[in-house]
Amino acid sequence: MSNRNQIIAGGAALLVALNSFSFFAFPMPRIGQLAATIAAEHEAKTQSQLNTQLHTDSASEPSSARMSPQDRETLILNAFNEARGEGINGIKAVLGVTMARVDSICYPDSVTDVVYQRHQFSWTHQRGSARTLASAARIDAQALQQIKTIVDEYIAEGAKPSTALLYHANYVRPKWTRSPDVKRVKRIGSHLFYDLKDC
User: Fold this and answer.
1) Residue 196 in 3-state DSSP?
2) Which terminus of the chain, N or C, has fewer Cβ atoms within 10 Å?
3) Cα(82)–Cα(130) distance, rounded to whole angstroms?
4) According to the model, what pLDDT value does residue 76 have?
5) CA dihedral over 49, 55, 60, 65, signed as positive or negative
6) What is the pLDDT of residues 77-135, one digit of tens each?
7) What residues does each domain of the chain span?
């Protein structure tokens, strides 16, 4: 407890104690009310500080700690549709971009909302993509199992975000790559990865 809080709490206790002594020749309802008011305000402020700290702690916890079962499934489907055949490093790079967006002020706050944000990941609006784990298993059960294992290990290790927020296949060149706010940072497999300024 800070010195100021100790003084406030001590003052309230002193006023309550003084009000209870019999040597006062007159009743002291106002002092009693004042003491109760000070104590109540102190309690409210302490609770407010606690609530603020809890919110801060929640926001600073790793993204993996806030991941729902639906987010896990979406992470698997995104890696399956975007990076199967890219090898472990390519899959982890896509996972890293996804989680970097979750942590970024420029994107939504959950894996599911990030992945299904309009026109962000091409498979979400293309026919023939695996939309469920069952359909992914029908397309390539072995690749799905490998990706599930990689995703679960990635989550267990803290789901660390990448330094890149954007990527595209090396056989296309989207218009956004010409923006001065975009900087290419690496190439992994058939994907080129970029950082986005101020995000």
Assistant:
1) strand
2) N
3) 10
4) 98
5) positive
6) 999 999 999 999 999 999 999 999 999 999 999 999 999 999 999 999 988 899 999 99
7) 3-60, 64-196
- For residue range 17-35, what is the model confidence (pLDDT) as tens digits? 444 444 334 444 454 555 4
Q: What distance in Å separates the CA atoms of residue 114 and residue 54, rounded to the nearest whole number?
A: 25
Asked if 157 contacts 92 with a C-beta cutoff of 8 angstroms, the reply is no
Hey, CA dihedral for 138, 141, 147, 148, is it positive or negative?
Answer: positive
What single-letter amino acid sits at 18? L
What residues contact 138, with CB distance under 8 A and at least 6 apart?
none
| CB neighbour list of residue 115: distance below 8 Å, 6 or more residues apart | 74, 75, 77, 78, 98, 121, 124
Concatenated DSSP letters of 101-161: HHHSTTS-SSHHHHHTSTTSSGGGGSTT---SHHHHHHHHHHHHHHHHHHHHHHHHTT-PP
DSSP code, position 162: P
Tokens read off for 184: 């290419």
- Comparing CA positions, the residue from 79, 82, 98, 89 lying closest to residue 188 is 89
Q: Nearest-CA neighbor of 119 among 184, 191, 175?
A: 175
